Amino acid sequence: MLRLLREATGLIAFVRTVQTGSFSAAARSLGATPSSISKSISRLERLLGVHLFRRSTRLLAMTQEGEAFYDKIMPLLEQIDSSAETVQSYRAPAGHLRASLPSELGRMILEPIFTEFVPMYPEISLSVGMTDRHVDLLRENYDVAFRVGQVEQAGLMCKTLSHLDMTLVASPSFLRKHGDIESLGQLKNIPFARYVADGKPYPIGFVDGGSILPSGRIDLDSATAIRDAALSGVGAAHLIKRTVQDDLDRGLLVELLPHVKLQTVPFQAVHASGRLPSFRLQLFTDFIATLMRSSARE
């Protein structure tokens, strides 16, 4: 047992390589070099007397022995890692957090993060990415990603923080050109600035379970770009209502079919499966959850 504990570096390198899928990605997340990761794992393999990975120029896959070893060692390392978290609540929370926020909704969240969370926890530092792209938490070394919509990627733990109301909008200039929209049939025949993820357009869902796949005038991968397209009159748009409420109040956008109830979408905090959230991450997630709930009541 003591021999294995002396290879703690190899154990960590092995687990992180499994999680990230490559020596290079594991090295980036650990602040090491790919060669040092490979050498650490090789020393561990010699100690165990088995190959943990099948290596080739194009493939890095676990052997049967590697899978069995990972299943045993991963929970133990997590328990060791989480033991520090049990005492963190007795001191001021500190450390670094790397978070990903969706573009347009994130724009609304940033101000209270700056004015409330940062002053409240001066020992916590933040790196914040703003994108609607579904980041790879392990490969890109994110502690948490806040995402709109369902998360279908395996190996992730999700916590729903709120459900967001959606709306259909268009600019006054768009309506002057295409006429007032008074039925779902008309909705199917007008051009949209569509949200597209992984090459697939996002459907418009209704509370009754039905849906419409809008016809595309222009396809975009961020809510900010879709809002801009709607404001310019390029197309109608299906957006989170709170992100365009100010535009609606100012008359820059008009709500289409306000009597039709649209399906809400979940707003979720996502972190890698097998990683217990740190105390600072719990504080940050709880802050965002409280913020979303309070803004929903306004």
UniProtKB/TrEMBL annotation:
Alphabetized GO MF terms: DNA binding; DNA-binding transcription factor activity
Keyword Repeat: no
Cross-referenced Pfam families: HTH_1, LysR_substrate
Domain HTH lysR-type: residue ranges: 11-63
Domain of life: Bacteria
InterPro entries reported in the protein's UniProt record: LysR-type_TF_proteobact-type, LysR_HTH_N, LysR_subst-bd, WH-like_DNA-bd_sf, WH_DNA-bd_sf
Keywords annotated in UniProt: DNA-binding, Transcription, Transcription regulation
Family stated for the protein in its record: Belongs to the LysR transcriptional regulatory family.
UniProt name for this protein: LysR family transcriptional regulator
Higher taxonomy: Bacteria, Pseudomonadati, Pseudomonadota, Alphaproteobacteria, Hyphomicrobiales
